[in-house]
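Input record (Table S2, row 220):
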Amino acid sequence: MTLAGRPAGFTPELAKGPRGRPHRRPDQPADPARSAAPSRWASSITFKKSSSKTPVIDVDTEGRRLRFANGETAEFDLLAYVPPHRAPRVAREAGLVDDSGWIPVDRDTLHTAHAGVYAIGDVTGIPLKMGKPLPMAGVFAEREAKVVARNIVREITGRGEPAVFDGHGECFIEAGGGRAGFGRGDFYAEPTPQVDLRPVGRRWHLGKVLFEKTWLRRWF
Ligand SMILES: Cc1cc2nc3c(=O)[nH]c(=O)nc-3n(C[C@H](O)[C@H](O)[C@H](O)COP(=O)(O)OP(=O)(O)OC[C@H]3O[C@@H](n4cnc5c(N)ncnc54)[C@H](O)[C@@H]3O)c2cc1C
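Output record (flavin-adenine dinucleotide complex):
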């Protein structure tokens, strides 16, 4: 795979371990020596962020080497990268997005500028009073979906109360080592979102595991 010519903004996160070790295929058993000593590996992981001035212009997967626009190179054992985050082509080509690159919506109903057309989740751009957009998060996507679904049902059946998305959301913040934090807040609060952060602890990690299991059971 060669990624020559990747646009600016291509953001790689490099997980770099000791080189020369055999890489385990998913169907191979884990190496107990590696599993038993995660901290030994963790200390050799580095993070490197590209910028619009120094985007990654090539990934040599055979040689496990990245090349940046400024001529720098970096080696990797495992590369996990985040491609540019943008609205899908279908939304862009339909003329739904504005200059921000996202679909503008009524922040209460998620209705777009087009009659009978709604947008929810990451594809939307909802500016907040503080000047930044509503964070893109699954918790918001889900709540927005419920609001839109209820309002569409109401439009069709004429029954029920109008639903409104209130900008509330929460998420676990994984800290590793069986511990996590938790944040919850009103992101529509003005002039700035009101977010309550709970200290990192084992309880929140267990909550996160339960949360994940609940979702997996519900859908799969
Ligand atoms: C690493 C990571 C960690 C995250 N952690 C959290 C977290 O802890 N809590 C949280 O709330 N959020 C988290 N998020 C954010 C969350 O994943 C997103 O906000 C959420 O998935 C957005 O949902 P969505 O349905 O709007 O978009 P998506 O989940 O991106 O779904 C859009 C779907 O549309 C499909 N699609 C695109 N174009 C077309 C087309 N033309 N035809 C058919 N299908 C198409 C895509 O393939 C995709 O499946 C995280 C995101 C990342 C990347």
